[in-house]
Amino acid sequence: MTTSPIAIGRNRFACASSRHRRVSASGLSLHLLEWGDPGRPALCFLHGGAAHAHWFDEVAGPFADRYHVASLDQRGHGQSDWPPAGGYATEDFAGDLAAVMDALAWRDMVVVGHSMGGHNAMAFAAWHPDRVRGLVIVDARPSIPDDRLVLMHRRGQRALRHHATIEEAVKAFRLLPRETVADPELLEHLAREGVVERDGGWVYRFDPNANATRKPVDAWTLLDRIHAPTLIARAGLSPALPPERAARLRSSITRAGLVEIPEDIIESARLDGASGLRLSRYIVLPLLTPIAVSAIVFGINGTLKVFDTVLALTRGGPGDATTPLTLYMYNTAFSYGDYGYGSTIAMALTILSLLVTVAIFRSARKDVTA
Question: What is the pTM of this model?
Answer without folding.
Answer: 0.74
